[in-house]
Design the sequence.
């Protein structure tokens, strides 16, 4: 046998063993034998670089190359599901389906709702060609390289099976409880921040820029939706069975049922039994099985009518409140935190929970020693949801009082009108506020200075090297090398990544400034509208309010921020170090006046971009997006399913209807 043939054979064999092990959980050979085969293949591949293949089993170990992710537009938008938490609504959904199908018989597929992050896998001629995250549903990140390291995702499908030449399969990427706990144990030892739940861990891992890290973290994937021309069956259930034959991991809990009672039985069973599953689930998904019936039921703007998610109530536990401490955040907001006897909740041990604000504490008339109920809902941070008043006895401690002064700097707290939170107003010298602002400034979505972390910031802060983010650009090598055992090499790395941050685009700089209420999205919108910090800082309230998506609260906050001389000085210092204070030529070139002075109505459902993106495109090209059709409307940008009333009105007024493709040509 020549090397080429042997490589082929080893690859096929390893794909098969991989499937036996990771999908079926039934290995035929020992780990040792597997490793031997793998080593053989690695050796052969090393000798024949011309025969390299990204889908070879050897590629599952990932690479150390760092890179940003490409954005990819989904072949078909990734919709989400309508949610419900109660049975009555499940019944109502069932009855709507019955009615929608005019009394036809139908079957329903019941599946687990896996709590990870959704992924779209694209196969051509039996090979994985692309893996894309959900993103905003219209486009997501190309994470193919990372996904290749997930052992239960087949890279090459068995020859001769009945899969179409090209198809898409969607599912959920998960971090099994076991991997999650092991990962957090390691992180605790390394004093790294822990992941709050497996979903966050899976998401953080999948977005890692280093696929070798992904490979180590042991992710898993369950697939639940097959799409494309020429998929084998006219039934969802049968299509997933087919996918299972091709080597995909399908949730083995899937059942096809005929009555509402059976749906309820399924829900009851899995509500408790799901605790024994190896991965996190947060509900049940119900889908009409027949694809013909699915088509006839159709979609609403956001989700299919043929499916619904029944979500389990968050798990609730009771424990004893021992102490309330107060945390000061980056904005100066003071959050009360309950410290409790440890309690097991949805797979993790919980000791602390948020108490939100003063009103919340008052509402429960909370006392130290109270028996409290804790829940971990959709949020990462557990919260107290109730107090057991009947459990109160003699030994009850004092009533919980909200503090009057900042626990960090001693300044008297203030409560602004209409707000529930207390703030420490000392934003010029309260340590957690200053540190928080620097941490925000360097964070990934802001200036992305990733060689610095909270501990280093705290250390520099304590030593008086930095007090505000602009100080970062003044750090000298001699101040930081040797500190905290830091080697010269890491000092160089830090200085380099600070220097590199001067290339971060203006919209992210604007976000990094930490102006209250100016989040990522608002910063983007503002940067694109005003194009430079000088135009933004001198904009009147009226001008600010003209920007789509900018309301009174944000506008006011921007004005207040720029009026403060300290902030003006801060901006000038950043500018002097070369930080971007305007859109670059490149970004400017994405703008035009093509739609100058035009009022455009958006209607219907779109395939290439989301509504918000079309809104942004209209603005970027000088147009204005308006809500309703009038004689002043220039044209209507119409997707699928534009409402009949709108269409009629447009025709009456003689307003042009432009479809998606025509529109994209217009602004090309
Ligand atoms: S079907 C059009 N099935 O839940 C139907 N989704 O809001 C597409 N999910 O984004 C989804 N388990 O990430 C489907 N068995 C399952 C699921 C599932 C989890 C997630 C998925 C989706 C979200 C729906």
Sequence:
């Amino acid at each position: 046998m020549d090397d080429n043939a042997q490589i082929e054979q080893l690859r096929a064999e390893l794909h098969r063993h991989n499937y036996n092990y990771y999908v079926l959980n039934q290995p035929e050979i020992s780990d040792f034998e597997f490793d031997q085969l793998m080593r053989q293949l690695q050796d052969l591949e090393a000798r024949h670089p011309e025969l390299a293949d990204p889908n070879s089993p050897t590629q599952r170990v990932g690479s150390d190359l760092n890179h940003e992710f490409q954005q990819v537009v989904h072949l078909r938008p990734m919709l989400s599901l309508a949610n419900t938490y109660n049975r009555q609504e499940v019944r109502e959904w069932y009855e709507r389906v019955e009615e929608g199908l005019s009394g036809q018989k139908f079957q329903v597929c019941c599946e687990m709702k896996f709590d990870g992050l959704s992924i779209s896998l694209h196969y051509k001629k039996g090979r994985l060609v692309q893996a894309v995250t959900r993103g905003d549903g219209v486009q997501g990140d190309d994470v193919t390289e990372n996904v290749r390291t997930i052992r239960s995702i087949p890279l090459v499908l068995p020859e001769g099976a009945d899969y179409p030449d090209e198809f898409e399969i969607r599912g959920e990427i998960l971090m099994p409880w076991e991997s999650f706990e092991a990962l957090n144990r390691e992180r605790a030892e390394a004093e790294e921040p822990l992941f709050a739940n497996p979903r966050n861990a899976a998401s953080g891992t999948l977005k890692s820029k280093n696929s070798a890290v992904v490979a180590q973290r042991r992710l898993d994937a369950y697939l639940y939706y097959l799409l494309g021309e020429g998929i084998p069956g006219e039934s969802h259930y049968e299509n997933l069975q087919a996918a299972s034959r091709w080597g995909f991991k399908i949730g083995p809990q899937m059942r096809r049922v005929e009555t509402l009672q059976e749906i309820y039985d399924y829900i009851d069973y899995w509500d408790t039994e799901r605790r024994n599953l190896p991965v996190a689930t947060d509900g049940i998904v119900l889908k009409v099985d027949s694809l013909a019936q699915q088509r006839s039921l159709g979609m609403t703007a956001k989700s299919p009518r043929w499916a619904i998610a029944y979500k389990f109530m968050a798990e609730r536990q009771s424990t004893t409140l021992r102490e309330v401490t107060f945390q000061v955040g980056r904005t100066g907001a003071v959050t009360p935190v309950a410290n409790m006897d440890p309690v097991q909740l949805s797979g993790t041990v919980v000791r602390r929970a948020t108490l939100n604000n003063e009103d919340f504490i008052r509402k429960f008339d909370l006392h130290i020693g109270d028996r409290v109920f804790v829940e971990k809902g959709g949020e990462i941070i557990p919260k107290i949801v109730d107090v057991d008043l009947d459990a109160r006895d003699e030994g009850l401690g004092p009533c919980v009082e909200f503090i009057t002064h900042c626990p960090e700097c001693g300044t008297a707290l203030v409560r602004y009108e209409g707000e529930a939170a207390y703030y420490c107003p000392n934003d010029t010298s309260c340590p957690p506020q200053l540190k928080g602002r620097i941490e925000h400034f360097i964070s990934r979505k802001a200036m992305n200075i990733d060689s610095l972390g909270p501990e280093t910031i705290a250390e520099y802060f304590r030593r008086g090297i930095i007090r505000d983010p602009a100080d970062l650009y003044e750090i000298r090598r001699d101040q930081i090398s040797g500190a905290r055992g830091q080697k010269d090499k890491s000092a160089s790395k830090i200085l380099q990544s600070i220097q590199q941050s001067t290339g971060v685009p203006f919209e992210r700089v604007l976000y990094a400034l930490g102006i209250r209420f100016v989040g990522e999205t608002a910063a983007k919108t503002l940067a694109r509208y005003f194009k430079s910090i000088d135009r933004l800082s001198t904009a009147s309230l009226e001008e600010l309010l003209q920007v789509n998506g900018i309301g009174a609260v944000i506008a006011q906050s921007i004005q207040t921020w720029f009026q403060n001389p300290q902030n003006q000085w801060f901006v000038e210092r950043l500018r002097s170090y070369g930080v971007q204070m305007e859109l670059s030529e490149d970004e400017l070139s994405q703008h035009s006046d093509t739609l100058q002075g035009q009022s455009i109505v958006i209607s219907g459902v779109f395939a290439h971009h989301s509504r918000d993106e079309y809104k942004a495109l209209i603005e970027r090209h000088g147009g204005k997006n308006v809500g309703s059709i009038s004689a002043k409307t220039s044209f209507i940008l119409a997707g699928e399913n534009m409402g009949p009333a709108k269409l009629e009105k447009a025709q009456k007024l003689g307003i042009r209807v432009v479809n998606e493709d025509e529109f994209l040509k217009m602004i090309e």
Q: What stands out?
A: The radius of gyration is 28 Å. The chain is about 35% helix and 20% strand. The chain has a mean pLDDT of 89. The pocket of 2-(butylsulfanyl)adenosine is lined by residues 79-81, 111, 113-114, 118, 134, 172, 224-225, 285, 304, 307, 309 (CB under 6 Å).
